[in-house]
Amino acid sequence: MANQYANLCIAVTGLNANDNPGPGMAVIRSLKESFGDGLRIIGLSYESLEPGIYLRHHVNKTYLIPYPTEGTAALLERLAYIHQQENLDLIIPNFDSELFNFIKIASQLKQMGIASYLPSHQQLALRDKVNLKDFGDQHGLYVPADHKLYHADDLKKAADEFNFPMVIKGKFYEAYVVYSIDQAIKAFHQLNAAWGVPVIAQQYIKGTEINIAALGNGTGGNTSIVAMRKLYITDKGKAWAGVTIKDDKLITLANNFAKATNWKGGYEMEIMNDAEGHLYILEVNPRFPAWVYLTVAAGQNQPEALVKMALGNPVEPYDDYQAGKLFVRYSWDHIADISDFQQISVFGEL
Length: 350
Known about the structure:
Blueprint: E1 9-12, H1 24-35, E2 40-45, E3 61-64, H2 72-86, E4 90-92, H3 96-104, H4 106-112, H5 121-126, H6 132-139, E5 146-149, H7 155-162, E6 166-169, E7 175-178, H8 181-195, E8 199-203, E9 208-217, E10 222-233, E11 239-245, H9 248-261, E12 264-273, E13 279-285, H10 293-297, H11 302-310, E14 326-328, H12 338-347
Parallel strand pairs: 1-2, 1-4, 2-3
Antiparallel strand pairs: 5-8, 6-7, 6-8, 9-10, 9-12, 10-11, 11-14, 12-13
């Protein structure tokens, strides 16, 4: 391996590993597998109980960073301090809600010597849940019909059009399949409280759930595409087990998305394959999925490729991967000391 990668220092967000896990730990695992023990991982955390903080064999040091709502100035100031301590080479953000700020400060980070590999604000907006149906219509892609909900009263119109079941989605995260107007109202209030408006009501599509993890090269192509069929799904709709599958139609769909957006960076397409074989795009998440380590097992290490591209090195597109690779997620009680929790809570570093 080239010396350029021997002693990298990479900062990663998304260290939560609960029943709705962030991608951070899977990204770190993928990077460690590629770049070895010389790699230094800096965790960027929003809360003192994100499990990745305490997994010290994966994360060398963690710093608390300000919530996205605190704006870019606070984030930039904190990252400048962390860079001073750690001499960061690269930052990989892994939460939808933080991307707007990281994209905004990307050029300033670059001036400081910190690389990133992110979509533009325009690209981010194209696949936003609020805009996805229009984007699909424009590019001849199947996207379920939706309604933007600003008040609980708006649900009646959606229910009249879609009937039940239908899907109620938060602006950034979470989705509930609802079977009655009472369930829909409850879901609306929960998601509004968590993420604000608009909440999205989406037509329910029955079929097989498939996810695609991909890495766009920023010029209309993909460096990597790996498709996975969900085998076990949690009540939050998250894949708890899945298996890699091969289907040329899925590859074509991801390539069409990259071509239409010139997407730069990792992304995940959530697909429903209906009885007629139509591939409905339910969501496009603007970062690697929490199951991204499965891409490594299948023969395409997407986080590794992103790092190389972010550092300005060409990466040949992968042309194949192994079908039949299975992942099963599990829970694990990690033991730490209360003094570690106090240290990160009080001083913002561990």
